[in-house]
Amino acid sequence: MTATAMKGPGVILAGVQIASRIESMKESATLAVSAKAAALKAKGVDVISFGVGEPDFDTPQNIKRVAIEALLAGKTKYPPTAGDKPAREAVAHKLRLENGIACRAEDVTITVGAKHAIYLALQTMIDPGRGQEVLLPTPAWVSYKPLIELAGATCVEVPGSIDNQFHITPDQLARAITPRTVAIILNSPSNPCGTVYTAAALRELADVLSRNSRVTIISDEIYEKLIYPEIEPGLTHWSPGSDPRLAERTITINGMSKAYAMTGWRLGYLAAPGQSGAFAREVIKLQGQMTNSVTSFCLPAIVEALTNGAAEVESMRNVFMTRARLVFQHLAAIPRLRTVAPTGAFYAFPDVSACLGCTTPAGRRIGSAQDFAEAILDEEAVALVPGEDFGECARTHVRISFACSEKQITDGVARLSRFCAALR
User: Fold this and answer.
1) Using CB atoms within 10 A of its CB, is residue 147 exposed (0-12), middle (13-18) or buried (19+)?
2) CA 108 – CA 283 distance, rounded (Å)
3) May I ask the CATH architecture of the domain 61-308?
């Protein structure tokens, strides 16, 4: 198909008008890498993939069994848009008990994954054309910026530094807030960095936000259960929505995908207790005109996971913690890379600056992280994600997902070490 320009915004693609906001949107870098790696594997190439942010564990049997039983029992009709009462109650109970968030079932909606929850929050909040801004501490997950822009706001990056574990400082945050700022997206543990803000550091950011009453906090806590105090002693999760100063204007995002190995179930949730759930009701109104509810027979699986899933989650967390130590041990031994120890999630985010300007054994010039990722996939069959789409400050980094076996980590990083050593 060929595209032709239009008078005004957008393009014509094979005779069909394409909105400019969609035509200019980039494909997710993580999905693109996964697709290319899968294509090479289909051709018989021995690819070691560090690209996908997906646990390599199966969903625990008790959770699957509950969904199967619900399906067989005839739970196949439309549920309420926001999910049925037991699922919403289970989420609200979890947020009260574990996160200290004063939350009712009515303040919760079950969404088609956490990404859908973030989309709904931004679409409900942003008025296109009013020059509104959303702050985004970077490096940040590749979808935040497109979701902000799709909603009609400007994404203002607040860059973290590898010298500060990729975290932003309270002074940076204070300087970034303007009269146009309507929200900030916080994500800890971090995708792509694999680092975690301490509770004290988050409270310092909360101090700044408490003085700026116009700013809504969107707290993406999808990796909250994957934190490794064995690596950084004393590290714990802290939810901004538990701070009484911020409780009325904090939207907490979470889901079942990462901690419970339920990525394909597409089950997330949004909680907005402020003003007796006023924002949540507006979100649910939009959801009702969009996707409506999640799959009905999956709802009991949420209850089962949140009620009886702790032991399996802890078992998986321990495995990821061991892998975090292993991947950092190997990466730290590669002279041309610079990285920090992963303390949460399942990512490492090394800086490959020392490799830029070099040439690979196949004669390829490395001018960017994108070049680095493409070259190592072609020449060593290692798939990782280039840093450009994670923010301007991430342009010289690559993301490595260690949601894979210890053997894959050891073999893959050995290939990475060989690749870096061979650069000239």
Assistant:
1) buried
2) 10
3) 3-Layer(aba) Sandwich (3.40)
